[in-house]
Design a protein that fits this description.
Length: 195
Amino acid sequence: MRVLGVDPGLTRCGIGVIDGSAGRRLSLVHVDVVRTPADLDLSQRLLAIEHGIEAAIEATMPDAMAVERVFSQHNVRTVMGTAQAGAIALVAAARRGIPVALHTPSEVKASVTGHGRADKDQVAVMVTRLLGLTQTPRPADATDALALAICHLWRGDISARLADAAAASPRSRIPRTAGRSQPAPGRRVVVGGGR
């Protein structure tokens, strides 16, 4: 499976693409960071981000996309920029019918390092190790995008297996009322202690 991860941001938007599956070696396909200057008009910054994401999609043809879920921060301006850049990624994926998953930073950290409160350096070290790289991709937005892709590949594979197992389970074919005692025909059932 090939997954494109997007670490959204207006100033720096990380894009990372990996190949692999749960339990198998992962490999780096592509990594990039789209940078936009703060003094550029917002519409032009978003357009530059769209071009960067579109170029990565065209070059790598991913099976899925993972985008960081925007979470509450004290700085509203940062949240807005992150949400806007994330929305650009969602639109680019939707345009091509690529399934998208949103992952919180703590989900990504837990998937990659085993701890949901890991710092950026710990995430970068694990991404480098998991992908068998000799150098850590910089800046941190690049490793964060790769971590998102790894998280989705591992979590998505497990989620799909669980859904398949649940669908194949004999319990999933039992009617909802089976096993519950039903009142005899013509008998009145009173709830609440009335007579």
